C-alpha cells in the first residue's frame, strides 16, 4: 500500500492565507476561487463555459477544474455540513 502524503499546511492557515489562482485557458485568463470541499479537502475550484477555436470553428466547452491539496482531507478541524451545530431558533 502506498504511503499517505501528509499535508504541509494547517486548515486554519489555508483559510487565512489561501488566495485565488490565476490560470489561462486558450489565452483567456481565469481566476480559480479558494474552496473547502464538502469532503473536507482544501484547494481551488472553477466551473464555467467558454469557446475554443478548432481550425476556424468555434466550439463550446465546459470547464471543470479542481485543484486539491494532497492530504488535506485528513486535516483536523473539518466539520461535515450534516454535523454542524445550528443555533436554536428564538
Question: What integer is the average pLDDT?
Answer: 90
Strand order of the largest sheet: 3-4-5
- Structural category: mainly beta
The main pleated sheet reads as: 3 strands, antiparallel
Weakly predicted, low-confidence segments: none
The oligomeric status of these chains comes to single chain
| Ends distance | 52 Å
Q: List the secondary-structure elements in sequence, H or E.
A: HEEEEE
Count of domains: 1
Radius of gyration: 18 Å
Outline, from the CA principal axes? extended
> Approximately how much beta-strand content do the residues carry?
35-45%
Helix % is under 10%
Number of helices, where a helix is a run of at least 4 consecutive DSSP H or I residues: 1
Number of strands: 5
Descriptors:
90 residues, mainly beta
Write structural notes for this entry:
With 90 residues, the protein is mostly beta strands. It contains 1 helix and 5 strands; from the N terminus they run H-E-E-E-E-E. It has one domain (11-73). The strands form 2 sheets. A 3-stranded antiparallel β-sheet has the order 3-4-5, with no helix packed on it. It has a two-stranded antiparallel ribbon with strand order 1-2. A hairpin with a 5-residue loop joins strand 3 and strand 4 (42-54). The longest helix has 7 residues, at 11-17. The N and C termini lie far apart (52 Å).
Amino acid at each position: 500500500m502506498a504511503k499517505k502524503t501528509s499535508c504541509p499546511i494547517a486548515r486554519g492557515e489555508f483559510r487565512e492565507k489561501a488566495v485565488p489562482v490565476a490560470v489561462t485557458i486558450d489565452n483567456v485568463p481565469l481566476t480559480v476561487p479558494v474552496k473547502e470541499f464538502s469532503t473536507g479537502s482544501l484547494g481551488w475550484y472553477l466551473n464555467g463555459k467558454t469557446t475554443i477555436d478548432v481550425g476556424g470553428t468555434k466550439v463550446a466547452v465546459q470547464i471543470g477544474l479542481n485543484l486539491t491539496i494532497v492530504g488535506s482531507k485528513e486535516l483536523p478541524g473539518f466539520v461535515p455540513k450534516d454535523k454542524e451545530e445550528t443555533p436554536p431558533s428564538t
